[in-house]
Specification:
heterotrimer; A mainly alpha (384); B alpha/beta (507); C mainly alpha (318); A: 384 residues; 68% helix; C: ABC transporter involved in vitamin B12 uptake, BtuC; 12 helices
Chain lengths: 384, 507, 318
């Protein structure tokens, strides 16, 4: 039984020497970024110690005063980052550079809003109502994402271009049409933006006295499902093999019977659907309506999260907690006269060090092999 | 006078000692061959001489002077030039642009293309290597591309020319042209280092021959004083007879039937013109031909990569209407590709993942779309043993296997899939003798098991040795059908070049 | 042609050029660096940095030229960073680019508050669009089409000159031949003694400077301040323009103009809409340029092919 459980959770054991380097790379990148961030604060004449104390003290990552509240807020944003992070990573595994999470997120948000207040659905029992909403969110987000896949397969349009365009189209069509037009709240109510969703469409709270709702539980399950999909199913097997075709232009997966075109559309559907969940969470758990200006950015944060998490589901979850913590603590750093966008500086520098992982790996490998006094390098090899 | 001398060259790679104290000395104006199996260290040694690798230790002397070669720039300055096995050409550039790159005629900053074209034309005439300077490299045949490579290094004033497996990609005709050019260069006083594992060619062209095995120099022999058998023994370290055991074919029913198959090539031109033939169970049908005469189109149609313009394909008596790789595979076709890295395996995938590619959707490897890891591992472990794939570790990534082991992995995989028909497209390309023998053995085993095998090969010896029936492909058509005992290599050669045709009647 | 339509024509063209300049600079960044095989999606962030530092420099020196210099300096610094990661350490080019973008997001807002003590907008500073700084050719004024060029900012002219300059470098100089060779097949270039790393460094830094000019064009071109939303995806649009233009400078120019024209058209339609057109929701007008881009890619342009070694980190063997 224990073994079965272990296998379900960790998958097959794959012995790899120096596996710990893969784990250390993001950690070191984060630590280095914190150091550089401290220098930056110092240079602009503020105290890094005060800033970090405020930042991490209220991040929810470490216990402290009002921990429960911060912890709840941290997990609340974590679930959204996980959504957009997984969206990027799934496509990245298939070799697609899919940056459409931003648009999918909005599509998810507006879909959740509509089915949250629209007549036949509103006031159904919560469970049924939410199920209906999420089904539509997944379908709409998925379709929006799959447009990029379709355009690539049928018209050869690079996914970077199509997703950038689709993101903007989503913003304008939603915010400058739907929200101020067909979905506008009744003027008499004095609400700007769309109407509020019915009570039955609000995500149930799981930590009393906070805003923390079931979104985090949903994302824990989704994270596991995506991991399972990628590593334990034939679909995931084909997706990962596809990367070899899309990145290196090789045909082995195709020769092995993988229908790459079909999979490409499916992957973009999946990526869109997962990102859309994030949009639904923010509407159903925090805003309860679609406001006039959404102030997005979660889609692009997803890329950051995925990169720090090294495109692995568990890594993405942890990275999301880290970023979620930074964002939660961000409000407090204003007390030290530091703008609340400070955390994104840390994030940016972290990603820069992730990009520099060759250097970090080189150091680590040196450290690892120095003790053994061996000249054997592990990376690279003779190609003869 | 000695053109080039290397002393005690050692090159240590992370896992391999590629060169183990190699010392050679090469006279000016000779054609010096270096032979050895794949992985013997030939290319490594040459890359060291050309400054692409830094040796772990050892000394190099050029025209008597001790030198340090750290970059190709150093090598060029010392008048050493190299024609690489994989051409170092830029397809989108013209012949001229490719040749002058790195030392361009110029006025100030401006690249003087007209003068460059003129220079290339003069150079090409001077050495008798005909090229059109304004052609795009992407549009010229491989043989001409090689000339561009040679001109490139001659323009840099190379006195020592290194050729790394130059005939691997050439047709027999082009090889003949190359040899003519080499002799002419020799007559001009150039020194030529010729790397190969094809002993017949080495015996034709070289003056002296050095043999490498597993990074060590086995000896240097003069051509007059040796023969192919001795060289082969030095190379492999034992007596090798590349004789293929003849097994009588037990011909059964038709497993593959191709009728009037017409296929376009990548550029949209008809490359295969209404070809019809059958393959029966228990026989090996060889397709002989010079590369680029329709083989790629035939393969692409048979594996479902290209939809034919017309014609039909029947597998095991049933016509396959929807020609996709998946459909063909599930209806009994398996495929050993000509290019392992491109079509055979996924380099970043582990052995255990690679070995189920194509049967990953089948029981017991998966059920309802969920992979069964323990079955996969069990299977992979068994196959590693059965096909002697090294290292015996199912978690190694495909990219970290040697070429021979990659090919064994593909054989292991394809042959374990239930099939009636095996398409082997240049299955020994780039393999060393040991691995070749292995492939031959496995193909014959298939035949014994009653599988129908279609063998497409550029090596006539392979076709003659393995096939029960031979079809000759020329210019997209089958120009002859014969059997090994009714023909010989010369006759096949004539047919391959379109100089002889045979009427054939299809039953 | 009556004077009204003449004016409309000329001003539409001039406005299109204004809109196009930042996109064009960004696209040219992509053209030069991707021709050498280095993808730089950090151009969005470089534009933001340069837009801010341009304003800062202009504010301190009270003249836009200093802003331009600051912007260029930032371009060089960020180019060095991208180069250090991707050329020196063969790091992932996409990741490095994203790092620049994310940092720009945070640092831009941070400095806006730290330097100007404001959020959202910086105070107005001297800029290139000011009447005294514009470049006038009065004699062109009443000629159709050419009239558009009678009153443009320096940065618009610079963007057009940069197109010609980069075209000239890429296709008519020794350096350009080597840049393209490195982007197509660095191994081949290396074996011929071309210093692949030097070429890549050059292309990355030149490209970053071009993107930085785009940032300056945003904040000191027709506007005179830095807004926190900058560059509003203009960098990514530039990237799209580069692909659309098949990695060539003039292709990028045409693509940028098409996109900019779609923007101007959108504004024009909005302001002149009457009758049924008035009923069309705002969102449709605003999203028109993006629909047009996708439409153009589907209809007009065939499959674009990137340089063969684009985006692949180059490492010397052995």
């Amino acid at each position: 039984m224990k073994n079965v459980l272990k296998r379900i959770i960790f998958g097959p054991k794959e012995k790899e020497k120096y596996w710990w380097i893969n784990v250390l790379v993001p950690i070191i990148a984060i630590l280095l970024a914190l150091v550089v961030g401290a220098i930056f604060i110092k240079l602009t004449g503020r105290s890094p110690i005060v800033a970090y104390k405020l930042l991490f003290g209220t991040s929810g990552l470490l216990p402290g005063p009002y921990w429960k509240d911060h912890f709840a807020e941290m997990l609340l944003s974590t679930s959204m980052f996980v959504a957009t992070g997984l969206s990027f990573a799934i496509a990245a595994k298939a070799g697609l550079f899919f940056i459409g999470a931003e648009g999918d997120f909005l599509v998810g948000g507006i879909t959740a809003t509509y089915f949250g207040y629209a007549k036949p659905f509103a006031n159904m029992p919560t469970f049924i109502h939410l199920t209906i909403i999420f089904i539509f969110v997944i379908i709409m987000g998925g379709i929006w994402g799959a447009i990029a896949g379709y355009l690539k397969v049928k018209k050869g349009i690079h996914e970077v271009i199509s997703t950038i365009m689709l993101n903007w189209i989503a913003v304008y069509l939603i915010e400058d049409w739907l929200v101020i037009g067909p979905m506008k709240a009744n003027v008499k109510t004095g609400i700007s933006g769309t109407p509020y969703v019915s009570n039955t469409a609000r995500l149930p709270i799981i930590l009393h006295g906070t805003r923390l709702n079931i979104s985090i539980i949903i994302m824990i399950i989704v994270t596991y499902l995506i991991w399972f999909l990628l590593y334990r199913t034939t679909f995931g097997y084909e997706i990962r093999a596809m990367g070899y075709t899309l990145i290196y232009g090789m045909e082995a997966p195709k020769a092995g019977g993988v229908d790459i075109d079909k999979r490409m559309i499916q992957v973009t559907f999946l990526a869109g659907a997962v990102a859309a969940l994030g949009g639904a969470f923010i509407v159903l758990g925090i805003l309860f309506q679609y406001p006039p200006v959404f102030g997005g950015g979660y889609g692009f944060d997803g890329i950051t999260v995925a990169l720090i998490g090294q495109n692995e589901p568990l890594g993405i979850f942890l990275a999301s907690m880290f970023i979620g913590g930074l964002r939660t603590g961000a409000a407090a750093v204003q007390l030290a006269h530091i703008p609340k966008t400070f955390p994104s500086i840390i994030e940016g520098i972290t990603v820069a060090f992730i990009a520099l992982q060759e250097l970090i790996r080189y150091w680590l490998m040196k450290a690892a092999t120095a003790k053994k006094k061996s000249y054997v390098k592990i990376q690279g090899g003779a190609d003869e | 006078m000695k053109a080039l001398e290397v002393k005690n060259i050692v090159k240590q790679f992370p896992n391999v000692l590629a060169n183990d104290h190699i010392s050679l000395s090469i006279e000016k104006g000779e054609i010096f061959a270096v032979v050895g199996e794949n992985g013997a260290g030939k290319s490594t040694l040459m890359k060291i001489i050309y400054g692409l690798y830094t040796p772990t230790s050892g000394e190099i002397y050029v025209f008597g002077k001790k030198v340090k070669i750290e970059t190709p720039e150093d090598a060029i300055r010392l008048k050493i030039g190299m024609v690489h096995q994989e051409f170092m050409l830029i397809p989108r550039f013209t012949v001229t642009e490719n040749i002058v790159l790195g030392d361009e005629p110029h006025r100030g900053m401006i690249f003087d293309y007209k003068r460059a074209v003129k220079e290339v034309r003069e150079l090409s005439e001077r050495f008798g290597l005909k090229v059109d300077p304004t052609d795009k490299v992407a549009n010229i045949p491989v043989g001409i591309q090689q000339r561009v490579e040679i001109l490139k290094i001659l323009r840099r004033g190379a006195e020592i020319l290194i050729f790394d497996e130059p005939t691997a990609v050439l047709t027999p005709e082009e090889t003949e042209d190359l040899f003519k050019a080499l002799r002419r260069l020799k007559a001009e006083g150039k020194t030529i280092i010729f790397i190969s594992h094809k002993l017949k060619e080495v015996m034709t062209i070289a003056d002296r021959i050095a043999v490498l095995r597993r990074g060590k120099l086995q000896g240097v022999v003069e051509k007059e004083k040796t023969n192919e058998v001795e060289l082969a023994r030095m190379m492999v370290g034992r007596n090798v007879v590349l004789e293929i055991p003849h097994v009588e074919a037990k011909i059964g029913k038709t497993v593959l039937s191709v009728r009037d198959l017409t296929v376009k090539n990548k550029r949209g031109i008809i490359g295969l013109k209404g070809v019809s033939f059958d393959v029966h169970s228990g026989e090996i049908v060889g397709i002989a031909g010079v590369e680029g005469n329709g083989q790629a189109e035939l393969v692409n149609a048979l594996i479902g990569f290209t939809r034919p313009v017309k014609g039909k394909i029947e597998l095991d008596g049933k016509e396959i209407k929807l020609l996709t790789p998946y459909n063909l595979r599930t209806k009994g076709m398996v495929y050993i590709p000509e290019d392992r890295k491109r079509r055979g395996i996924v380099l970043p995938f582990r052995v255990r993942e690679n070995i189920i590619m194509g049967q990953h959707t089948l029981y017991p490897f998966s059920k309802n779309g969920i992979l069964n890891d323990s079955e996969i591992n069990k299977f992979a472990t068994k196959k590693l043993e059965e096909f002697d794939i090294r290292p015996r570790n199912i978690h190694v990534r495909g990219g970290n296997l040697s070429g021979g082991n990659q090919q064994k992995l593909i054989l292991a995989r394809e042959m374990s899939i239930e099939h009636k028909f095996l398409l082997a497209s240049q299955p020994t390309r780039g393999l060393d003798i040991g691995a070749m023998e292995f492939v031959y053995k496995k193909l014959v085993e298939e035949k014994k098991k009653g599988i129908g095998v279609l063998l497409i090969s550029l090596e006539l010896s392979e076709i003659m040795g393995l096939s029960d029936r031979i079809l000759v492909l020329y210019n997209g058509e089958i120009v002859g059908e014969t059997t090994p005992d009714k023909t010989n290599e010369e006759e096949l050669g004539l047919m391959m070049l379109g100089l002889k045709r045979q009427e054939r009647v299809l039953q | 042609m009556n004077s009204h339509t003449l004016l409309l024509l000329n001003s539409t063209i001039a406005q299109t050029l204004d809109y196009a300049a930042p996109i064009l600079f960004a696209a040219l960044c992509g053209v030069i660096s991707e021709n050498a095989g280095v993808v730089n999606i950090g151009l969005e962030g470089i534009m933001r940095f340069a837009a801010f530092f341009g304003v800062w420099g202009a504010a301190i020196a009270k003249n836009p030229w200093m802003g331009l210099l600051w912007g260029i300096a930032l371009g060089i610094i960020l180019g060095l960073m991208h180069g250090y990661i991707t050329v020196k350490w063969a790091g992932d080019q996409i990741v490095s680019g994203i790092a620049i973008n994310v940092m720009a997001l945070g640092i831009g807002t941070y400095l806006l508050q730290a330097v100007f003590k404001t959020t959202g907008y910086s105070p107005p500073v001297p800029y290139f669009g000011a009447e005294v700084n514009r470049i006038h050719f009065a004699f062109l004024k009443h000629i159709p089409v050419l009239g558009a060029f009678s009153d443009l900012t320096f940065l618009v002219w610079l963007s057009l000159i940069t197109v010609i300059l980069i075209h000239f470098i890429l296709y008519h100089t020794v350096l350009g031949l080597r840049i393209r060779a490195v982007g197509e097949n660095p191994q081949a270039a290396e074996t011929l003694g071309v210093n692949v790393f030097k070429i890549k460094w050059f292309a990355v830094i030149t490209g970053s400077v071009s993107a930085a000019l785009g940032g300056v064009a945003l904040s000191l071109g027709t506007l005179s301040s830095f807004t926190n939303a900058m560059p509003m995806g203009k960098g990514f649009i530039g990237l799209a323009a580069m692909i659309f233009g098949k990695w060539t400078p003039f292709g990028a120019l045409i693509a940028s103009l098409i996109f900019a024209f779609a923007q101007v058209l959108q504004l024009l339609l909005q302001s002149t809409a009457s009758g049924v057109a008035k009923m069309i929701p705002l969102g449709f007008y605003l999203s028109l340029p993006y629909f047009l881009t996708i439409g153009a890619l589907i209809g007009v342009v065939g499959k674009a092919v990137a340089p063969a070694a684009d985006g692949i980190p180059y490492k010397k063997e052995g």
